[in-house]
Write a structure and sequence with these properties.
The complex is a heterodimer of chains A (373) and B (503). Chain A has 373 residues and is an all-alpha fold. Chain A contains 15 helices and two strands. Chain A has a two-stranded antiparallel sheet. The N terminus and C terminus of chain A are likely disordered. In chain B, a hairpin with a 2-residue loop joins strand 23 and strand 24. Chain B has two domains: 235 residues, Rossmann fold (3-Layer(aba) Sandwich), CATH 3.40.50; 158 residues, P-loop containing nucleotide triphosphate hydrolases (Rossmann fold, 3-Layer(aba) Sandwich). In chain B, the strands form six sheets. Chain B has a six-stranded mixed β-sheet with strand order 6-9-10-3-11-12, sandwiched between helices. A six-stranded mixed β-sheet of chain B has the order 18-21-22-15-23-24, with helices on both faces. Chain B has 503 residues and is α/β, with parallel strands linked by helices. Helices cover 31% and strands 28% of the residues of chain B. Chain B has 16 helices and 24 strands. Classes of the chains: A mainly alpha (373), B alpha/beta (503). At the A-B interface, helix 1, helix 9 and helix 10 of A face helix 10 and strand 20 of B.
Chain lengths: 373, 503
């Protein structure tokens, strides 16, 4: 190829990248991270004497092999989409909400209470009512770090971590005290089961909650990208002074964002209660909020990206047991793989170096923000 | 005998959608200050980044001391004797001057840092070139001009022979510019060579030995400073005749727009920054606030537009109380604000240019209806402004961060001039802009005045104050030291007032 021709070719290549190029640029890092994590996970299995292909095969088969598999996967993914959205939403305003776990627990127990305490309502009213209660509880709990930040300057990372413990203890107390199920044996700390009218049903073997989650993902995307509120949130997240200059009340935005973020996490808890667990029981929601951080980062803090990353993490949770059964691998290996994914996404420089991609200057991830601003 | 130390031949560099450098050639001789003159976005910085090894050229060849070379990266450039001082300094604020200079090429005694022998070497450089600096001062305590000197010493310490200065005067006060020019002279007198990137005609004529003019990525001419004048250079650089002087009618002040009474502003540490300031601006006049940077102008502007709180005193806009009004309230009262720090305050860099064009009007119709943003309307509006204000970008959908130099300023100016206003508060509205753009902005400011707008221009550029203002307020140490009519005072007198000298 002559020099001239090569030049032209390069130009054409640059242009024809088009939409595929744009999408590749956005998802190349998470995708590579996933493969790297699976690869290293496979190595660990091989070293410990199992066949990684067999194990991953079983995992995939169990998670996506038939309608039951899909049902399990979607079930696991549903609360993760909500907690991922909660983290994503806060992230857009420059806030790192580590408190999704606490907000989710508050939502879960509130919806359980509304689910068993109110009787005689038709499902069409009872389901949304209990969901709404969960969302409100999460919102209320999420507003606390928001208010603390704007009133006192307390950094939300610290306060949300602390508030997680507060939530754990409140829900433990309630489910072992005022809201405890009165039964003959009386040993298990848990609330009574919710009324059938509050249960989120399955549709053709698939959990309806998942579809509610997708609607919310699209809704969150719409708020962020299409509304003035979303514009204000994104502006405040990227530059506090520019937001002030633009006439945006940054303190109000912080509180509103934390309220909405908390509501999303609370909804996650409510959907889990009404769709899967059927009551509130300590230990049944462990990690669902924390996994939201992985889901959000793996989804490149994009609301729609959250759906896919939640499906991935959900499938690993759904297929982990089968993997143990078939390939004799401890299910904890899925936690290792998940942790590796988070590691690679957070340390995206490593991944970019591997795939030789320059850093883009779009609204990227900034995991390190200054303390107290 | 003329000795060429650096030659670039037919350098071409393309980016998606633009040719930043189109077959550029020029020669730098030993002991010469070679000015690269061009508008914002003409491709000067791209060319320097090619020479410094930050970009690979698509075509062309670089010769150092008549030997063809391929500069791999900045390290390589320094090893080959090319040093660069960027517009934005790369210094660690909390380090001492000495530590900053040795940073990156430290010598050690076993595990510990050896600063003794570098100190001797650096002091020698300082004496040799008359650089006058204290090596033990913490860098952030130094004025900008001296920080720049640290960057120059840093390059000299790495034994470079060719020094590239990228718009070095953009951040300096007039006095600091004089000092820099003395240093540049002293450097070339002792055998160093300098590439001086700028768009300021006056400076080129004052300091350069050879001038190469670049326009839209191409070399369009060269000149010797004693054969050229500002007018001819401006024409060459912009590609059309530029009117260097403003022809404005006499101001016809009408009703009162801005009234400031006994305003006091303190900074976060309680220091008084604006000290009992009172003045007024009427519709149809331009009031220039002159002063050396750091004499309270910044705080005055920020307090007026609601960015920082006032301590005492009152502000009225259109006769209505506006003391401590929020930025949005001030905007809605019909005022526009061109902020001083264009990178930090006025815009969101990762946003598109279109979103930045509606940064403070995003919530109003037609850009939003019932809280829903109207993307088409926003885009249409932005495309129109991009064209009107000649913002150099492939598209309004590109991010604001992709803009070069003065295009940042044009973007803000475009936004603030685009809505009906009766008060314009402009802080350094043309900082970093080339003559063509300055001409355009100045005409728009005068147009606003003639439409009946009250205009407050804050500038550290004395020429700008003299050209634009109908009345001049000089600030010194937070106080108004004098208010004068622009046609009753000379530039020199204003200069003295800025230094705090009253008659």
């Amino acid at each position: 190829m002559t020099k001239e021709n090569k030049k032209k070719d390069d130009q054409i290549k640059e242009r024809s990248f088009g939409i595929v190029g744009v999408i590749w640029k956005k998802i190349s890092v998470p995708l590579t991270s996933i493969f790297l994590a699976l690869f290293i996970g496979g190595l660990i299995m091989a070293i410990s004497g199992s066949d990684p292909f067999e194990a991953y095969g079983a995992l995939f088969q169990s998670a996506f092999g038939d309608i039951n598999g899909w049902g399990r996967t979607l079930e696991k993914a549903t609360p993760l989409i909500f907690s991922g959205l909660a983290v994503t939403f806060a992230f857009k305003a420059g806030l790192f909400n580590i408190g999704t776990q606490g907000q989710l627990l508050m939502g879960a127990i509130t919806s359980a209470y509304l689910g068993f305490a109110i009787t005689g309502l038709p499902a069409i009213i009872h389901i949304p009512l209990a969901l709404l209660g969960g969302a409100l509880a999460g919102a209320l709990f999420g507003s606390i770090p928001g208010l603390l930040k704007t009133r006192t300057g307390a950094h939300e990372v610290i306060t949300t971590i602390m508030l997680n413990y507060v939530a754990i203890n409140i829900t433990d107390y309630l489910s072992n005290g005022p809201l405890k199920e009165v039964s003959s044996s009386d040993v298990v700390a848990r609330t009574p089961p919710i009324e059938a009218s509050a249960e989120i049903p399955q549709v053709a073997g698939l959990p309806l909650g998942f579809f509610i989650a997708i609607i919310f993902a699209v809704f969150v995307w719409w708020i962020l990208e299409k509304t003035t509120l979303g514009f204000e949130i994104r502006t405040a997240g990227l530059s506090g002074t520019a937001a002030k200059y633009a006439g945006i009340k940054v303190t109000a935005i912080i509180v509103i964002t934390m309220v909405i973020s908390g509501a999303l996490a609370g909804l996650g808890g409510a959907v889990e209660t009404q769709g899967i667990v059927g009551r509130y029981q300590p230990g049944f929601n462990t990690g669902l909020g924390f996994d939201g951080i992985t889901v959000a980062l793996l989804g490149k803090v994009h609301p729609i990206g959250n759906i896919f990353s939640a499906l991935l993490i959900g499938s690993m949770k759904a297929g982990g047991a089968k993997m143990q059964f078939v390939a004799d691998v401890t299910p904890e290996i899925t936690n290792v793989v998940q942790a590796l994914m988070l590691f690679f996404v957070a340390a995206d420089r490593v991944v970019r170096w591997i795939i030789r991609q320059r850093e883009t200057d779009d609204e990227g991830l900034t995991l390190t923000t200054g303390w107290g601003n | 005998m003329v000795n060429t130390v650096l030659e670039v031949q037919n350098i071409t560099k393309r980016f998606p959608g633009v040719i930043a450098n189109d077959s550029i050639s020029f020669k730098l001789n030993k002991g010469e200050i070679h000015a690269l003159l061009g508008e914002n976005g003409a491709g000067k910085s791209t060319l320097m980044n090619v020479i410094y090894g930050l970009y690979k050229p698509d075509e062309g060849q670089i010769f150092i001391n008549e030997e063809a070379v391929e500069v791999q990266n900045p390290h390589d450039a320094i090893a080959r004797g090319i040093g660069m001082v960027h517009q934005h300094f790369m210094l660690v604020p909390v380090f001492t001057v000495l530590e900053n200079i040795v940073l990156g090429s430290e010598t050690t005694n076993g595990p510990s840092l050896n600063l003794r022998s570098p100190r001797k070497d650096i002091q020698k450089i300082i004496d040799q070139f008359n650089l006058d600096i204290d090596l033990d001062t913490i860098t952030e305590d130094l004025p900008v001009g001296i920080q720049q000197r640290v960057e120059i010493i840093k390059a000299l310490y790495r034994q470079v022979d060719i020094l590239v200065l990228d718009e070095p005067t953009a951040v300096l006060t007039p006095q600091e510019v004089d000092d820099l020019f003395k240093i540049m002279r002293s450097l070339v007198d002792q055998g160093k060579s300098i590439i001086f990137i700028t768009h300021k005609l006056k400076e080129v004529i004052e300091i350069a030995d050879q001038i190469t003019v670049i326009r839209r990525g191409k070399v369009v001419g060269s000149a010797k400073p004693d054969e050229a004048d500002q007018q001819s250079l401006a024409t060459m650089m912009v590609g059309r005749d530029v009117d260097m002087h403003l022809h404005k009618k006499k101001a016809e002040p009408k009703e009162m727009i801005l009234e400031v009474n006994n305003l006091v502003v303190k900074d976060a540490n309680g220091n008084v920054e604006v000290d009992d300031v009172s003045f007024e601006i009427k519709a149809g006049e331009i009031v220039g606030i002159a002063g050396v940077q750091g004499n309270g102008q910044t705080e005055l502007v920020n307090a007026l537009v609601g960015m920082i709180p006032t301590e005492s005193g009152t502000v009225k806009i259109n006769g209505l109380p506006a003391t401590n009004a929020s930025p949005r309230k001030v905007t809605e009262m019909g005022s526009a604000h061109i902020p001083e720090d264009r990178l930090k305050d006025g815009r969101v860099l990762p946003f598109t240019i279109a979103d930045n064009m509606v940064l403070n009007t995003y919530y109003l119709e037609p850009f939003a209806k019932s809280g829903i943003r109207q993307q088409e309307e926003i885009k249409e509006f932005a495309v129109d402004l991009v064209e009107k204000f000649d913002v150099r970008t492939p598209s309004a959908e590109n991010t604001a961060s992709s803009l070069s130099g003065g295009n940042h300023q044009k973007e803000i100016d475009a936004r603030e001039f685009s809505r009906p206003i009766n008060l314009l508060i402009a802080a350094q509205p043309t900082r970093g802009l080339d003559v063509g753009s300055i001409e355009y902005i100045h005409h728009r400011i005068i147009e606003k005045r003639d439409e009946g707008c009250a205009v407050m221009v804050v500038s550290t550029e004395l020429d700008e104050i003299m050209e634009l203002s109908d009345r001049i307020i000089v600030m010194f140490n937070g106080k108004i030291i004098d208010t004068v009519n622009a046609d009753e005072i000379t530039k020199e007198q204003v200069g003295l007032l800025m230094a705090g000298v009253t008659a």
